[in-house]
Here is the input.
Amino acid sequence: MVDPVPSVSRSVETYRRAGELIPGWTQLISRRASQFAYGVSPIYARSAKGARFIDLDGTEYIDWANAVGAVILGHADNVVDSAVKSQIDRGSIYTLTNPLEITLAEELNDTIPSSEMVRYTKGGGEACAVAARIARGTTGRDKILFCGYHGWHDWYQAANHLVDPESGEYPFAGIEPIGVPKVLADTVAPFTYGDVEGLEALLEANRGEVAAIMMEPLRSEFPPPGYLNAVKTLARKHDAILIFDEVSCGWRLSIGGVQKHLGITPDMTVLAKAMSNGYPMGAVVGSREVMEPASRMFVSSSYWSDNVGLVAALTTIRELKRRDSETRFREIGEKLRAGLTDAIATSGLTGACTGLPTHPVLAIEVPDETLRRKVNTLFIQEMAKRRIHCPTSFVLTLAHTDAEIQQTTEAAADALRVIKRGLEAGNVDSLLECDIKQDPFRRQVT
Ligand SMILES: Cc1ncc(COP(=O)(O)O)c(C=O)c1O
Here is the structure.
């Protein structure tokens, strides 16, 4: 056991104050303390560099969450940050438009296979809402079929009015579609990833009304063979716009996105998060045909033109290319996956580190779902004690080196041994020093 276990008392006290001042404690549900080992995991940070951060109590942690994927080169990357700093010296936003908008659009067109025209936003959910608006405007239809997570806006959250409140099936426990107009419920419907017949039935049931099929093309596993092609064929058959939401899956597998890696292009793509290494930025890119009508739609916001996001995105994309990110991410992910799989085996547990190398997921075999949630929480808790901040799926950056991988897999071996002993003795509950971690969003594509 690592000695001493780091204190998180300042984090916990600050979180208590946050509860009095900020409804919901944080601005992003995934940042809530209930998403980690509350009382053991750090909650607040005071600085971050590379693959590590220092929390409010002064402890350094290896970071495998990386702002839920928004950091891709590493925290406070020198190249991106110096480009941003020199832009700030020249003005963070102008009265006039910065020609960098065109430079970034050209870079995106050169990078994302389906990109011919580009609009910008500051975040992913916002970019999804823009994509929904453009798809509806371009087709003159109202309905959107979706698969995956697409943010907080009404067009998407309205689907939760279709959920039976008693079923416990809302995407996030304790979060209801309060405040989302019920009249929108009929304008959006979820479909199940991998189920072509289900999607076809939904399209038939809404024949002539579907503006778009919006989906995350993958998260941590490749799609079933032929699946995305079948979705595209159905979209074509029903004259619906196919939108890939590559906000989370887009940049690590390939700089050109999942569409480049798998060789299947949508009509429109939503991008955000990692494209600017932690500076607010999002984009909707697509074919000229589907994007051009946006010039006659109300799609407009002051900060979409800010210079910081443009510079950060342009520099990040060029740095990803210069640093051969695709190869490096594969190498980092494969090493981490192998190390974690070894750690599971040496602990005596059954399981493996699964998922794409760019998104490894710890999968320990446990007899039932209730136990899985406890075991996952225990893993997060024991890793936090060893100064590793991670969910059970790992978000990579180019700043993760062999040193971080080794430290992580050694800590994991210890943490997994604790779990093994707990399972054998039947006392996992008594080993938990925190509440059981809440499930993440249910609507994510796995
Ligand atoms: C696939 C996907 N779409 C949209 C979003 C929303 O992005 P943001 O949190 O920047 O609004 C996320 C965020 O996790 C995402 O993963």
Observations:
- The chain has 15 helices and 13 strands.
- The mean pLDDT is 95.
